[in-house]
Design a protein that fits this description.
Divalent-cation tolerance protein CutA, N-reg_PII/ATP_PRibTrfase_C, 3 helices, Ion_tolerance_CutA, Alpha-Beta Plaits, 4-stranded antiparallel beta sheet, 109 residues, alpha+beta, N-reg_PII-like_a/b
Length: 109
């Protein structure tokens, strides 16, 4: 584990389950994330002067902070939305074995 790197939880959303499944599989195959938890949720948001309400798919990815830029770049290139949601939150504590597993399963930046 790079001492300057840290484990993070990346949240992203997509309009449908199939797109999210294929995209998260691609990220895992490239070792850009160790795991992806996905689930449907109801959303309401303001976009281009209108309020939209619908069901989307949310993914929570477990990865290294140093890989968030690559994940964000791939998302912007492949995502069906003009402005896709990709945010990262540091994992400040947790099961040390789980946090190490995240580093073991992901590539170095």
């Amino acid at each position: 584990m790079n001492s300057d790197d840290q484990a993070v939880e990346v949240v992203m959303t997509a309009p449908d389950k199939q797109w999210m499944r294929e995209f998260t599989q691609q990220l895992m195959q490239q070792h850009l994330c160790a795991a992806a938890h996905t689930y449907p949720f109801e959303t309401a948001y303001h976009w281009q002067g209108e309020v939209h309400e619908k069901t989307e798919i949310r993914a929570v990815l477990y990865t290294r902070a140093s890989l968030v830029g690559r994940i964000s770049q791939l998302t912007r290139q492949q995502h069906p939305y003009e402005v896709p949601h990709v945010t990262a939150t540091p994992l400040v504590a947790g099961n040390p074995d789980y946090l190490q597993w995240i580093f073991d399963e992901t590539i170095t930046a």
